[in-house]
Amino acid sequence: MGAVVGAVALAVVGFNWSGWVTGASASEMSGKQSIAAVAAALTPYCVQNSQNDPNAGAVLAELEEASTYKRRGIVEKAGWATPLGESKPDRALSEACQIALAADK
Asked: Does residue 95 contact residue 39 with C-beta atoms inside 8 Å?
């Protein structure tokens, strides 16, 4: 009986305070981290696209006036967050890009 109580206590402590995770949780976390890493790596590409865009002034003015939740869509619509070879903009990249563009002001 003591071994069962000890095992339950160990599991509770391990999962709640020691950072233990299940395989599914670990997979989810690594997926999120890889998406964030790709977005961080491609952010300079997005910023460069904005600098090469002849309409950048108008788009940046629109970004400045837009509310926070609309900015990602503006970057996506401008095409700055669409990686080479892709047909759609990358959501995480457009979010990282709009933050970088706001910081560059």
From this structure: yes
Instruction: Note the pLDDT tens digit of each residue in 29-74.
Output: 666 676 677 778 888 999 999 999 999 999 999 999 999 889 999 9
Whether 98 and 69 have beta carbons less than 8 Å apart is answered as no
Model confidence pLDDT, tens digit, residues 9-32: 545 555 555 565 566 766 776 666
Q: Of 66, 19, 75, which Cα lies nearest the Cα of 43?
A: 75
Of 71, 77, 79, 78, the residue nearest 96 (C-alpha): 71
Cα–Cα dist 1/77, whole Å = 63
Q: Is the full-model pTM beyond 0.85?
A: no
Of the candidates 40, 24, 21, the one whose C-alpha atom is nearest the C-alpha of residue 96 is 40
At a CB cut-off of 8 Å and minimum separation 6, what does 83 contact? Answer: 42, 45, 90, 93
Per-domain residue ranges of the chain = 29-103
